[in-house]
Amino acid sequence: MIIALTATTQLGGIAWLIGRPFRQSLLVSLASYAVLSISAIWVAPAFGRTPLSCVPEKGGAHAGIIFCVTNRHYVTPELKSALNDIVDDLNTSFPGIQLGVLDASFPFLNDFPMLPHLSHNDGRKADLAFFYKDSDGRPLPGGTLRSPIGYFAYETGRSACPATRFDLHWDLNWLQRVWSKHELDIDRTSKLIEAATANPRIRKVFLEPHLQKRLDVNHPKVRFQGCYAARHDDHIHLQL
Ligand SMILES: [Zn+2]
Prior knowledge:
The chain is α/β, with parallel strands linked by helices and about 240 residues long. About 30% of the residues lie in helices and about 10% in strands.
C-alpha cells in the first residue's frame, strides 16, 4: 500500500502511515493527504519545483484535476515559463486558447520514479494533451480529454513497433472502443508542436511517427521515443 500510494502520488504513502494508529484511519489518512498536498504547493519552490495552475483559464496552461489531486503537476520554474511562452505563441493564432497538461513531475526530489513514466523525475518534462474537435468539427476547449486520465486513447495509425508483451508500449486495443470519439484537431495540435519546437528552452518533443506525418511536423527536436517507452499518439511529451 505504501509503495503503491507513494509511486502514484508521492505523499500518499506517508499520509497512509500517519493514519494507521487511529481508529478512523482512512479519515485521518485522507485529511493528512489533503494537508500534505496543500502544504506541498508552498514548500515545493524551496526544492526547485512550482505547481501548474489547476484551473482552466483562457490564454494559459493548466493541469487536469486528476493530476493536481495526485501531485503530478509540478515543474521547474524554467519549464513553467516555457509553457507560458508556448501558450502566448498559440494565442497569436488562436486567441484565448487554453492548453491542457497531463503528467509533469512530483513536488519533491530528483530521480524519484513517477510510474509509469521512465523520465518524469526532475520537473523538466511534461506531457501535453492533444487538441480535439467535436463530431460537428467545432473545436473543444484545450484540456478536453478522450479518456478519464488523458492517456491510452490512441490515434489510429501504423505503429512503428512490433507487438511485444514486455515493454511500456502498451496497445490496449480492447480499451479503444470505450473512449469518446473526439477528432484530433490538426490545426491547433500542429501549431502547438510548432510553438514548442520554436521555443529555445525546449530540447525534445516526443510524438509517434505516424502522427508526425499526419500533423506534417518535421523538426529535428521532434523525435520518436523508441519502442520500449509509452506510446506517444495519445499525448505529446516535451522536455527542457
Ligand atoms: Zn512524458
